[in-house]
Amino acid sequence: MWNILPLLKKLGVRVLSKITGDARYQEICYAHRAKLNVMICSKALINMARKMEERYGIPYIEESFYGVEDMNRCLRNIAAKLGDPQLQERAEQLIAEETAKLNVELAPYRARLKGRRVVIYTGGVKSWSIISAAQDLGMDVVATSTKKSTEEDKARIKQLLGTDGITLEKGNPQEILRVIRDTNAEMLIAGGRNQYTALKARIPFLDINQERHHTYAGYSGMVEMARELDEALHSPVWEQIRKPAPWDMENEILSDSIDFDVFDLSEEVLV
Questions:
Q1: 3-state SS class at 5
Q2: Spatial contact of 207 and 232, defined as CB atoms under 8 Å apart
Q3: Nearest partner of 195 among 183, 184, 211, 182, judged by Cα
Q4: How far apart are CA 81 and CA 19, in angstroms?
Q5: CB burial readout 32-48, b (16+ within 10 A) else e
Q6: Taking the C-alpha atoms of 219, 106, 153 and 196 in order, what is their torsion angle to the nearest 10 degrees?
Q7: How far apart are CA 222 and CA 154, in angstroms?
Q8: Mind listing the pLDDT tens digit of every residue in the chain (271 residues)?
Q9: Is the Cβ–Cβ distance between 180 and 168 less than 8 Å?
Q10: How far apart are CA 165 and CA 182, in angstroms?
Q11: List of domains in the chain
Q12: How many CB atoms lie within 10 A of CB 195?
């Protein structure tokens, strides 16, 4: 919310309540006065959005704050739904300003991240919204999960991944490792509990769940996400751990240096 509120303030939209996002009790009490609900996760809050529309006549839209295209679409849809032509004009101006600045900041990261293959294992809205963010950076998402996803979420995933994309309904560590191996994935983007799965596969890992310490939402969050992805992928530790252990290398060198032709292996005992 700290990344999104300044954008909405620039746009001229007053945010009455932030339910589940740094909210205060008072805000919840007057949330019914809003002209529009912006829902971020249908799995968690679709019933609340429908009930507020039924009881108070407040329309709702489902949006994502992750990725350039999703953030642009979110601002446009908010302005369009509120039905103010001047607000729509300001939204286009804000999008143009923010994306121009963002493209400059993301250029070096896009060059280093382009074509890198990633597996995403998370839930709900992030199962499709993070795909969009990764694709904005030029990355190739080869698989994602559909855990805690609605049918609408799954339809978005299918559209974003195409026919070759793999979806994981209930991925356990063994299944995730198999997908990483089969797709030659170079990175796992998931919740903190899957960190050790990535370490077993000897590939970089990025924590995408809400417990993380970095903000990835909005335009500024996109730069932070790109920076974290770049640092994880290009850490020198991965090159080191993929090398054979020193004692394995010594044994290999030793066996290569021995000429087995000098031994008579026809005897039962070789001393």
A1: helix
A2: no
A3: 211
A4: 20
A5: eebeebbbbbbeebeee
A6: -110
A7: 23
A8: 888 999 999 999 999 998 877 888 999 999 999 999 998 877 778 899 999 999 999 999 988 888 888 899 999 999 999 999 999 999 999 999 999 999 999 999 999 999 999 998 887 777 777 888 898 999 999 888 877 777 777 777 887 877 777 888 777 888 889 989 999 999 998 887 888 888 888 899 988 876 667 888 899 999 999 999 999 999 888 888 877 777 776 666 555 555 545 445 444 544 4
A9: no
A10: 12
A11: 5-105 (3.40.50.12380), 108-241 (3.40.50.12380)
A12: 14
User: Cα separation of 162 and 171, whole Å?
Assistant: 20
Max Cα separation, the chain? 94
DSSP annotation string for 187-237: EEEE-GGGHHHHHHHT--EEE-STT-SS--SHHHHHHHHHHHHHHHHT-TH
Is residue 34 helix, strand or coil? coil
Q: How far is Cα of residue 139 from the mean position of the Cα atoms in its chain?
A: 11
Amino acid identity of 262? V
Rounded to a whole number, what is the distance in angstroms from the first to the last CA of the chain? 73
- 205 close to 199: Cβ distance less than 8 angstroms: yes
